[in-house]
Amino acid sequence: MNRPAEGKRTAPTAMNSQDIDVYLVNSKGAYLYDAKAHALVLVSQGDFRSIVAGSQQHFAKVPVFILIVSDIARFQRGDENQKTTWAAMDAAIVSQNINLFCAGFGLKTRPRVWMDTEKLKEILKLKETQRPLMNNPVSR
Ligand SMILES: Cc1cc2nc3c(=O)[nH]c(=O)nc-3n(C[C@H](O)[C@H](O)[C@H](O)COP(=O)(O)O)c2cc1C
Q1: Which of 33, 55, 66, 82 is the most buried (most CB within 10 A)?
Q2: Ligand 1: distance of its center to the CA of 110 in Å?
Q3: 82 belongs to a structural domain
Q4: H or E element at residue 119
Q5: What does the radius of gyration of the chain's CA atoms come to, in whole angstroms?
Q6: Does residue 6 fall inside a structural domain?
Q7: Residue 111 is part of a domain; what is its CATH number?
Q8: Distance from Cα 5 to the centre of ligand 1, integer Å
Q9: Do the domain assignments include residue 129?
Q10: Residue 102 to residue 96: CA distance in whole angstroms
Q11: What is the tally of structural domains in the chain?
């Protein structure tokens, strides 16, 4: 959140729907990033990195995954197709912010789509309308 008076964030979202939630997955657990409090809230304890790594197990030992989830129910307008497109756009902008931050601070990352989405929905205790769309592994 970079404009707290307006409740606005570093990444824009379609119609300011703020459909994106960011989660962090490390060796200890899965956490929801509470943007307003600038704090991590534990959602599930355990090492779920191999589930985020999915079919690319060589990522399973990265220190941190940042997981980007859209709740398409937060779009007040649009049909299913449009909501799905906007969600992907909003997620990609957040991912690019992570890419730029990491590039600027000498950290390694990349945008990823491969992950075990169904298992992650359970671990992150997501609603039916919440979709894990992308993740960024972050390491040195
Ligand atoms: C939408 C999107 C999805 C991607 N998904 C994956 C992925 O699941 N796993 C992966 O290893 N890389 C993934 N990538 C990274 C691309 O493979 C990578 O950006 C591309 O090979 C170009 O390399 P560069 O980013 O170093 O220029 C993805 C990139 C984008 C933009």
Answers
A1: 66
A2: 6
A3: yes
A4: helix 117-123
A5: 14
A6: no
A7: 3.40.109.10
A8: 35
A9: yes
A10: 10
A11: 1
Which H or E element spans position 41?
strand 39-45
Distance from first CA to last CA of the chain, Å, rounded?
25
Q: What CA–CA distance (Å, rounded) separates 22 from 7?
A: 16
Q: Which of 65, 112, 133, 138 to mutate to test the pocket of ligand 1 (most atoms within 8 A of CB)?
A: 112
Q: For residue 27, what pLDDT is reported?
A: 98
Ligand 1 contact, 139 CB (< 6 A): no
Q: What is the pLDDT of residue 17?
A: 98
The pTM is what?
Answer: 0.96
Q: Give the pLDDT of residue 32.
A: 98
Residue 13 placed within a domain: no
pLDDT along the chain (140 residues), means of 10: 94 98 98 96 98 98 98 98 98 98 98 98 98 98
Range of the domain at 95: 19-139
pLDDT at residue number 52: 98
Residues 55 and 42 sit within 8 Å (Cβ to Cβ): no
Establish whether residue 56 lines the binding site of ligand 1, counting it when its CB lies within 6 angstroms of any ligand atom: yes
**pLDDT of res. 58:** 97
Predicted local confidence at residue 54, as pLDDT: 98
pLDDT of residue 28: 98
Residue nearest to atom 6 of ligand 1 (CA): 112
CA of 25 to the centre of ligand 1 (A): 19
* 111 Cα to the center of ligand 1, angstroms: 5
